[in-house]
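Repro:
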Amino acid sequence: MAKQTSPKLAVGRIVLYVLNESEELRGEIRPAIVTRVNNATSAQLTVFPDGANDFPLPRKVQPLLPDGTVVFDNPFVTGKVGVRPPGHNLSFAVSSAALDQDDKKPGTFHFPEID
């Protein structure tokens, strides 16, 4: 049987991102959509974590900034008092991730395996 080749990177393609954003989740795999192709082996992604299972609703850890912004203990979240942080637990962007179909190291992405 011939060796299967990787699909071509394209905007809108679904890939699998290997989390690198927290020590507890490093190496876990989550779905992502390619939002921009940087080159043949690098892309910008929108990653879809497992909501509050991956990143619980953050606690406020610092006082209000002068503009009313609250700083939370989650690196993906900022927001105004009384307002749920925008986009929290829905998705986050990765500006440059490398394709790593073989080793699948944290912070990289790969194409789904086809059975």
